[in-house]
Amino acid sequence: TGAISSLQRQMEIQESELRRIRSERDLLQKQLRRQEDQLQAMCDKFCSLTEEQRQEEITMMMEEMNINLQQVVAEQESQLAEQNKLISELQETISQLRAEVVTTRLQLLKHKQTQKEMQSQVEALQHKELQTRVALEHMSSKFERYRNKIIQIVFSVEGSRDPVAELTDNEVLEAMQ
Prior knowledge:
The protein has one domain (1-148). The protein is 90% helix and 0% strand. The chain has helices at residues 2-47, 51-156, 169-176. α1 runs antiparallel to α2 (51-156). This is CCD27 protein. Residues 4-128 form a coiled coil. Keywords: Coiled coil. InterPro entries: CC-FHA_domain.
């Protein structure tokens, strides 16, 4: 989850950068429109001058405006190319981050599934252990009863004497033989 939130934070930063670049591009387009409006205003001004003055002024202004516009267009095209390059890089990074998020989530789901399977195996083994302990207790009690019966039979035979101390299994076996 830490990796996922880190990746999501990076993705948000990249998207924020993308929005900022788009905003700058819109601003540049507005500036271009404003300059076009100024050009239109100058054209309207020249309409009121005499024809000869108008021609000279128009020619000078057009050359000047043309040079300025070419510079502006060159700058904006350069900025637009840089922004488009940055946008494509950011989109590629966002795609990679999304892929990493998906991969991380899949791994997390696999880990959870494995953990559930391990838990169920542990529970099954605990149940088996309990059953084995019960069976062992049952067998131990049967063995003890069987041993006690053998001791009773061995020492109930005529001519046998009672033991003075607690008997070991080997002593019971020798007496039985």
